Amino acid sequence: MTAPGTDPGVLRRRATDALLRARARTRLLTGCVDDRDLTAQHSPLMSPLVWDLAHIGNQEEQWLLRAVGGHEALRPELDPLYDAFQHPRAARPALPLLRPAEARAYVADVRGRVLDVLDAVPFEGRPLVESGFAFGMIAQHEQQHDETMLITHQLRRGAAALGAPEPPPAAPDAGALPSEVLVEGGPFTMGTSAEPWALDNERPAHHRFVPSFFIDTLPVSNGAYLRFVEDGGYGDARWWHPEGWRQVRAHKLVAPLFWRRSGSRWLRRRFGAVEPVPPDEPVLHVSWYEAAAYAAWAGRRLPTEAEWEKAARHDPVSGRSRRYPWGDADPAPEHANLGQRHLRPAPVGAYPEGASPLGVRQLIGDVWEWTASDFLPYPGFRAFPYREYSEVFFGSAHKVLRGGSFAVDPVACRGTFRNWDLPVRRQIFAGFRTARDAEPA
Q1: Cα-flanking dihedrals φ and ψ of residue 402, to 5°?
Q2: Of 39, 142, 188, 400, which residue is least crowded by CB atoms under 10 Å?
Q3: In which residues is gamma-L-glutamyl-L-cysteine bound (predicted)?
């Protein structure tokens, strides 16, 4: 379907479905390990899984029960414990957190009350509830933490706790695709003012002029990245941003996170299993510095955020910007690898039905894609409903990622959706594609 209109029944069903789908995934991610794994900190970069679980419930209580429903606080003493800005991740295990059984009971109690609120609240009269925004915001928040918890599962040691079917193979024509496509210069509409559940940093829609450029038809594969590795890319300062080069030397980096050499082969660890690095999958678990270094080595560069969005959304025939590369319809299984349906990226060249008008594939799903751009507000940006979602992160410290990964639910992934992270981050499900300037006519 296209972006929902204002029919309250349709919006209520959409909100209910999004909340229930997120909760089913949360239960999967927290129910597949024992209490010891739930309360352990598997990496100082991540929270204990039980913190994420209770934080999900606390945010839902604050926004949907209190702010939308007007309820009194159920557990006000939990607010500071589960405030992500008060406590860095490395310090959270020392907090008096809810034990797993208590956390489950709390989030279930909140959810039962929220569904009652959802049944009764008018979807008009307040910006927070217009078109069901607050419910969509909380569904996206839970799915974002589900992705974070999946990252924790990747970082934890021990037997794999999760399973999923294999993604589809590359399309038969993948080997014949051009390596890059030309995106003609000109204006396009970036961002959105119409998507009802778009978050504040995606707004407002505005015009951008982008000069002509070429962009990779496919994400950079493991096989392509391995050529950079074996050409001594991690030992040559020419390709690296100065801070990236410092990271390489300080941490003795030689390959993407979770890769290791065994004799003449490269292996990787994926959700507890060790396997040969598949050459035809998009490269995964690389930092922005690694992505930029590869691009420099290849004689190319990372696309800017505006270039990425134009390649993903702009239809040169109609001149309009689509919701997704394939059009305005919500993502379906034939379009993209989303929603933890598979636990790995699909081979490069998969999902031909998800291609953009110019034939660029896998712009949505599989791997988040680093861009060259800093995370900055759009012209006319207005923080809503709180500054801490986006505004406090604006600046040169964070780089923008686009497109979503196999770990992202469709509710939290659109052609306008903006993710951001520190350029050193490697544990996230991030890869990239490259671009280059078009020669002047």
Answers
A1: -130, 160
A2: 39
A3: 89-92, 421, 425
Torsion of CA 110, 116, 118, 124, to 10 degrees: -120
Q: How far apart are CA 98 and CA 16, in angstroms?
A: 27
**Tokens matching residue 344:** 């790995």
Residue ranges of domains in the chain: 8-155, 166-441
Q: Work out the widest C-alpha separation in the chain, in whole angstroms.
A: 66
Q: Is the peptide bond before 204 cis (omega within 30 degrees of 0)?
A: yes
Pick out the residues of the known binding site. 55, 89-92, 141, 145, 421, 425
| Chain center to CA of 183 | 24
The fold of the 166-441 domain, in CATH, is paralog of FGE (formylglycine-generating enzyme) (3.90.1580)
Architecture of domain 8-155: Up-down Bundle (1.20)
CB 313 within 8 A of CB 321: yes
Mutual angle of helices 133-155 and 8-31, in 10-degree steps: 20
**Binding site, annotated residues for Fe cation:** 55, 141, 145
